[in-house]
Every structure is written in structure tokens, then in C-alpha cells.
Design a protein that fits this description.
Plays a role in vesicle-mediated protein trafficking to lysosomal compartments including the endocytic membrane transport pathways. With 816 residues, this protein is an alpha+beta fold. Helix content is 40%, strand content 21%. The chain starts with a helix and ends in a 12-residue tail after the last helix.
């Protein structure tokens, strides 16, 4: 296209879905594709001067052209059978082919326009025939044929001819007759077979061809035209085309203060998108076009052609052809990028990825990252890397190096992928080294959060050790080193550091990795760090850490030893029985309140040694218990009465041992102590005869609560008597019940043969009779009788056996 227009000038164009046909002022016709490349090696033979109009059939097989040289030429692109070159001997301004020209038997019609509209037909024996359809209204400058309708424009207006009815169906007059048609040509365009678009200089009309519904159409055409939209414009219309329900209009403006066209200064042409209405229009968009030499062009120098179904529009000027397309998603994204709306562009690219041809999400995202970094929005740029870079390892590594160059590695670190993809270990190590140099807490967080397979543990260990050479007391770095040792399964080194730092993770480390064998020689350190946790761990693992080993290490720390042995004792009193003698001393020293409970529960300590320890410390209650266990109850009672002076405890002690001598000693001790006598009177009744105590009370002694004590003694006596009577009744009742049960059991245990008969009446007695009947008597000698058959005086012994031998039954007494 560029080469053609550099040496020639475009005069007209016709478009088809297959190609473009460009006419020039030198009379040439070039066949091009939709992006301006020649698709024929040579131009078509056509005219000797300006090509005024080109027409293409619907199939794209034939092209018709006309020129001021008076010739109309029809060329077949694939066949020359129907090629024609007709000379009319007068300038032909317009031509239009039958859309069905390619069909055989179609008549090969085409129409031409000069001072009249002529229908041309290829008749019998290829003879050329013509029919005048209209004349007498001036030159015809534009013709458009669609379906069965032919529309043409002359100086007065636009008319439509119906080929089916062979009649003109409408005349649309021009509202402004003063506009000169040779300067302001009328633009025609069929949107479809029924909708005609008319652009008359400063006026636009939209017309629809309809079928008449009236029954009486004898004097009228079967079709008529209705104007559905009409409005005046503030610009000159150089071309018109449809876009859905809207119109695409090529607009032309002139700056002039006179009526003389030669003095007018042409402006830049505009491509407008408008919404038509009756009497007005709404402008949707307006694009100014950069056309070479537009200052010297007039309205008729521009043409607008459209490609149906593809929303492509071709603006033709003498030296330029501009293609206008409906904005697609690529255009929208390009506009968003130009206005720095990157996030909206990414969203649109993601949503319409299959419709994009020039853009993709990756490139848009990269532009967005460049913009964010340029604007120093590093945090947002790092966050967007996750969405933009996705799973592309190379892009991730490249971006990390860029962040490193601008010293922003710590910003991108939280967003680095840890899986799918895995970056090179050097990338993660570079980031960690940045934290090691500037942020020890952040470094510690990374080594805990990042999987160990992302980096070389030994590399980081060496780096931390180098750092510790300069700052050996840095607790955070020591913790980091311990964590790295743990990750590298060098648990002994990690444990040593944790113990040195007294870090809470030491116990978790020991449990998790079963390091009990490693702490056998570190018991004291663990107890000093956290005795509660250490005791819990040691007691739970006595099979891994022997009790003897722990006791030996804690010898120098008796308080910790006491805690350990006490924990073992509560878990199982038999575990550390060999150390119970030592525990007596430890309880006496550190936990006096638990000593007596321990003495009561354990049987593995030397009583004499424990008594000596308690005597040394003057622990009277413990001494009382030990003396009682050793059998020295008298001395124990003496301690209670003389040292503790606790009558209740003395009474409980006597009750516990239930020794009459102890009771007698307690009574003798209490006889001159009224408070002790009161206590004895309240409690002695069920263990010792109260008379013994009462007889020893001296006359005239005042005893607090004596009356109540005596009443209580009587009540206790009555209660005892009542209990004895109740027990006696229960005993007697139980004896009778047990005796009956024994007799029934013995009766059922006697073996009786089937079909046995009563030995007196000789009637049959069955086993069922023995089980359920109450009038059968069986003796231990196995003889059975009906009770009614036995004499009343002989119910206790078998009459048969008594007769045979005068001896008792199986056992003394009745043998029944």
C-alpha cells in the first residue's frame, strides 16, 4: 500500500472479506489483503484515468469499476469467462454489481450512473442489453446494491429501486439543495438488506425497507421505506457505516469565512461513533485522524468503507489508508498501561487471556514491577511478585537479584517461594546472609520457618560461627546456632548450647530427639535451669536415666535430691525403697508437713534411725507414730499426754491399738484432770466399761459437762443393746433360712429312679413328682412314700428299713 500511494493517489476502494480493491487516479485497480499487501503480482487492467467507484459481488469472484474515461470494466479474479469492458462514450461516475453476479443464470446484471441510471444485462448469446431505470435529475454520483434493492444518489436526493417488483419504491429528498454534490458527495451504505444509511453532507438519515401489510396495494409498490432516525450534524459527512445499533461516521470540517471553496482551509478528519435518534444524536467517541496532506483535501477526497461482521473500517484519502477497528481487549489493556493502571490491566489480562494477541499477563506484570520499583514502592512490588512471577524459577531469581542490587532483599524475603518452584540454594543463602548481617531476630525467624532443604545448613553454620568469633556472647546467634545444629542432627552440640543459655527448648529437644543418654551427666544443670520440668522428665524416664545415677549427682544438692525422691515416691512408693532412710532426713529438713505421711506409707526405712532423727528435731507426732509402730505404746502415750496434752489424740491412739493396759494408763493419767475425764467420758463407752472410770473419779471433783457425758454414756449403752438385739434377730433369721436351704438342697440331691412306686400303696412316683409335689417323702435310704400313706407316728424314719434292721438312718436324727 505504501509503495502504491507513494507514486499514485487513491480515488476509491471496495472491501470484501477476502481482499481489498483499491482504485487510483491513474486508473489502476490493486488487489490487496487487509493489512495492505499485494495478493496479485500485477494490478488489474482497468482505466486510463481516475477510477470513480468499484463494486464486488458477494462471493468475491468479480470486480466492476467505472471511470471518467467512459468505460465500465468487469474482471474475474478466478475466471475470465465473464470479463467485460463496455465503453459508454461519457464519464461514468458510479457502478454497482448484482450481489449474485457470480451465479450462473443470474443475468450478470450491473447498474451504471451518469446522467441516468442504467441496468446492464448479459443477454442471449452474450449480447449486452441496457434498461434505463431513472433519468432527468442530474448526475448520479453513488450507487449501492444490496439484495434486491438498489439505492442511488443524485443532486436532488436518494432513490431506491426494487428489482423484484421492477419499480422504484421511494424518493428521499435532500434537505439542503444548496450544497454542491461535486464537493459534498452523498454517502450510502447498506447495513443489511433492509437498512440503508445515508450521509448527506450535514445530515444523516437511517431508513428501513419494509413490506406493506395492506391488502389493497394495486397502485403502490409492495415495499416502502421508513425513516427511523434523522438529524442534522455540525460537520460534513464523508462516509457512513454501521456498528451494531450505532453509526460510524467519517467527519470533515472546514475553517472558512467566505463562500469560496478555494479559500477554505481543511481540518483534520475525525472518525466519530454516534448513537442515532430522531432529530438528535449522541456522540460516543471521537478520534482525530492523522492523514498525510489533509490540509489540501476536500470532503469528496475521503471515503469510508466497512467490512461486515469484523468491525473493520477503512478510511481512504489520496495518500493514506487508515484502518479503524473496534477496540479489542489488547487495545483496552494498552490504554490501561499508558495510564499506569497496571492492576486493572493485569485483571483484564487474566480474565480475557484467550482473546489477547499482543499482550500477556507476564509482560504486563513485569511492567508493573518496573513501575513499582521506579516509584520505590518496594513492599508492594515484592507482594505482587507472587502473583506475577508465579512458578517461573528464572524470573524469580532474576527479580531477587534486582532486589539485591537495590538493597531490598529483606522486603522480598517473606514472599519467596518455598516449593514449586524451589529456587537455587544460593538465593536463599543470600537472603539469609543479609539478615545475619543486619537483623539477627529476622535471621532466627527464617531458619525456623524455611525448610532445611532450601539451603546448605553447613554454609549457614560457618557464617554464624564467623559472626560469633566477634560477638561470642550474643544470645540470639547462639540460639540460631543451636537451631542449625538441631536441623543438622548434631544434637549434642545443640544441647550444650541450650543448657549454656538455659533455654526453654532444651527439654523439648531432649524429648523430641530422645537424648536421655546425653543428659546423664547434666542432671544438676537441668535442675538448676527448671527443676519442675527436669523432675518430670527424669521421673518419666527412669529406665533411661537410672535412679542411682541421679541420686549420686544430686548428693551435693540435697534440696533437688529431696524433690526427685519425693516425686519417685508419689509415682510408686517401691521404686526408690533403698533411699527411704535418706528420705526421712530430707523430709525432716525440707518438707516437715509430709514427713508423717511418708512414715505411715513406707515400710523401707529403719525405725530406730528415723526415731533418732525425730528425737533430735523434737518432732513429737512423728515420734508417737514411730514408737507405736515399734510397739512401745506406753512411751508413745506418755508423749501424747505429757508433751502434746491432747486427750483426743490419746483416745485415738488407744482406739488404734485397742490395748486394755493403754486404756488403764490413760485413765490413771486422766483421773486428776477434769478436761481429760470429760474427753474420756465422751469416747470411752464403746471400748472400756465406763464404770471403771466413774468409780475412780474423786468425790467433789468438778468435771465440765458431766451430766451430758453421763447422758451420752447411757445413750451409747442403749444403742449397743439395741444393736445386739437387732443382730440377734438377724442371726436367728439367717440360721433358719440357711437350714431350709440346706434341707431343700439335700432333698433335690437324692437320687430316685424313674417309675419308682410308693412302698405302701404301690402307686408310681416320678422325678417330676419329687421336684414339684409337696405330698412325697423320700428318706436317705432312697425309699419313697406318699405322706398320706405313712402312719402319723412314723414320719421320721423309713418303715421298711426300721422293720429290716433296727438302726438309725444315714445321719443322727431324722433321715428324711
Amino acid at each position: 500500500m505504501s509503495a502504491i500511494l507513494n507514486k499514485d493517489a487513491a480515488s476509491c476502494m471496495a472491501v470484501h472479506t477476502k481482499f481489498l480493491a483499491l482504485g487510483t487516479h491513474w486508473g489502476m485497480i490493486h488487489i490487496l489483503d487487509h493489512i495492505g499487501h499485494n495478493i496479485r503480482s500485477k494490478e488489474l487492467p482497468a482505466h486510463t484515468t481516475t477510477v470513480n467507484q468499484i463494486s464486488i459481488d458477494d462471493n468475491g469472484d468479480y470486480i466492476a469499476s467505472c471511470s471518467d474515461d467512459g468505460r465500465v470494466v468487469i474482471n474475474g479474479l478466478y475466471s475470465t469467462d465473464n470479463n467485460q469492458a463496455i465503453n459508454f462514450d461519457r464519464p461514468i461516475k458510479a457502478v454497482a454489481m448484482d450481489p449474485m453476479f457470480f451465479k450462473s443464470g443470474s443475468g450478470k446484471h450491473f447498474v451504471t450512473g451518469d446522467d441516468k441510471l442504467v441496468l446492464n444485462e448479459k443477454g442471449f448469446l452474450s449480447r449486452h442489453r441496457t434498461y434505463v431505470l431513472h433519468q432527468g435529475e442530474g448526475p448520479i454520483r453513488n450507487i449501492k446494491w444490496k439484495g434486491s434493492c438498489i439505492a442511488w444518489a443524485n443532486d436532488l436526493g436518494v432513490k431506491v429501486y426494487d428489482m423484484n417488483s421492477k419499480s422504484r419504491i421511494t424518493f428521499i429528498s435532500k434537505d439542503n439543495p444548496h450544497l454542491r454534490p461535486e464537493i459534498y458527495r452523498c454517502s450510502l451504505c447498506w447495513k443489511d438488506e433492509f437498512t440503508l444509511l445515508i450521509g448527506w453532507a450535514d445530515q444523516v438519515k437511517v431508513c428501513v425497507v419494509r413490506e406493506r401489510q395492506d391488502d389493497d396495494t394495486r397502485d403502490l409498490p409492495k415495499k416502502y421505506v421508513e425513516i427511523v432516525a434523522m438529524f442534522q450534524t455540525e460537520f460534513m459527512v464523508c462516509g457512513i457505516a454501521p456498528l451494531g445499533t450505532r453509526l460510524v461516521v467519517l467527519a470533515f470540517d472546514e475553517d472558512t469565512n467566505s463562500q469560496e471553496v478555494s479559500k477554505a482551509v481543511a481540518g483534520r478528519p475525525h472518525l466519530k461513533l454516534i448513537q442515532p435518534n430522531m432529530d438528535f444524536y449522541d456522540e460516543i467517541s471521537n478520534d482525530a485522524l492523522s492523514i498525510r496532506g489533509f490540509h489540501g483535501y476536500r470532503c469528496n477526497d475521503y471515503h469510508l468503507e466497512s467490512l461486515e461482521g469484523e468491525s473493520m473500517y477503512f478510511i481512504v484519502s489520496p495518500k493514506d489508508v487508515v484502518v479503524a477497528r473496534q477496540r479489542d481487549k489488547d487495545d483496552h489493556i494498552q490504554w490501561l498501561l499508558q495510564h499506569a493502571k497496571y492492576e486493572e490491566a493485569m485483571s483484564a489480562a487474566s480474565e480475557f487471556s484467550k482473546q489477547l494477541k499482543r499482550h500477556n499477563l507476564q509482560d504486563i506484570g513485569q511492567q508493573f514491577l518496573d513501575h513499582l520499583i521506579e516509584e520505590e514502592q518496594f513492599e508492594k512490588a515484592a507482594r505482587m511478585c507472587v502473583k506475577i512471577l508465579g512458578k517461573n524459577k528464572d524470573l524469580w531469581e532474576s527479580e531477587v537479584f534486582r532486589f539485591a542490587q537495590i538493597q531490598q532483599l529483606k522486603v522480598i524475603a517473606p514472599y519467596l517461594p518455598q516449593k514449586d518452584p524451589n529456587l537455587s540454594p544460593s538465593i536463599y543463602e543470600m537472603v539469609m546472609n543479609e539478615y545475619l548481617l543486619t537483623d539477627h531476630i529476622g535471621f532466627q525467624k527464617l531458619i525456623k520457618e524455611w525448610p532445611t532443604d532450601l539451603y546448605s545448613i553447613q554454609t549457614l553454620v560457618n557464617a554464624v560461627l564467623d559472626k560469633l568469633q566477634k560477638d561470642g556472647s550474643n544470645g540470639v546467634l547462639l540460639q540460631c546456632l543451636a537451631t542449625l545444629y538441631t536441623q543438622d542432627k548434631r544434637y549434642d552440640k545443640a544441647l550444650h548450647i541450650y543448657l549454656k543459655l538455659k533455654h526453654k527448648d532444651v527439654f523439648e529437644l531432649i524429648r523430641k530427639h530422645r537424648l536421655m543418654d546425653s543428659i546423664v551427666d547434666k542432671i544438676v544443670l537441668l535442675m538448676e535451669f527448671d527443676s519442675k520440668e527436669a523432675l518430670k522428665m527424669l521421673i518419666e524416664n527412669i529406665d533411661r536415666v537410672p535412679v542411682e545415677s541421679v541420686v549420686n549427682q544430686l548428693e551435693a544438692e540435697p534440696k533437688y535430691l529431696h524433690l526427685y525422691l519425693d516425686g519417685l515416691f508419689h509415682k510408686d512408693p517401691h521404686i526408690a525403697q533403698e533411699f527411704h532412710d535418706r528420705q526421712v532426713v530430707l523430709y525432716a529438713e525440707y518438707d516437715r508437713s509430709s514427713l508423717l505421711s511418708f512414715l505411715r506409707s513406707s515400710n523401707y526405712y529403719p525405725l530406730q534411725q528415723a526415731l533418732a532423727e525425730c528425737e533430735r528435731r523434737n518432732f513429737i507426732p512423728e515420734m508417737v507414730f514411730l514408737l507405736g509402730r515399734m510397739g512401745n505404746t506406753k512411751q508413745a502415750l506418755h508423749l501424747i499426754t505429757n508433751e502434746l496434752r491432747d486427750v483426743d489424740q490419746a483416745i485415738d491412739f488407744c482406739k488404734e491399738h485397742n490395748d486394755q493396759e493403754l486404756w488403764q494408763d490413760l485413765i490413771n493419767y486422766s483421773i486428776d484432770k477434769p478436761s481429760f475425764i470429760t474427753g474420756l467420758l465422751h469416747n470411752i463407752g464403746t471400748h472400756v466399761d465406763p464404770i471403771i472410770l466413774i468409780q475412780k473419779i474423786q468425790d467433789g471433783m468438778q468435771i465440765p459437762g458431766l451430766r451430758d457425758s453421763l447422758v451420752r454414756i447411757l445413750q451409747d449403752f442403749n444403742l449397743q443393746m439395741s444393736l445386739r438385739e437387732g443382730c440377734k434377730k438377724i442371726l436367728i433369721s439367717d440360721c433358719f433360712l440357711l437350714l431350709q436351704k440346706l434341707i431343700k438342697t439335700q432333698k433335690r440331691g437324692i437320687r430316685v429312679e424313674n417309675n419308682q412306686t410308693c412302698h405302701i400303696c404301690h402307686e408310681r412316683i416320678t422325678i417330676r413328682d419329687l421336684q414339684y409335689a409337696s405330698n412325697v417323702t423320700v428318706f436317705f435310704c432312697h425309699h419313697a412314700f406318699h405322706e398320706d400313706c405313712l402312719p402319723a407316728h412314723n414320719m421320721e424314719s423309713c418303715a421298711i428299713c426300721s422293720a429290716q434292721r433296727r438302726s438309725p438312718g444315714v445321719f443322727a436324727g431324722p433321715n428324711r
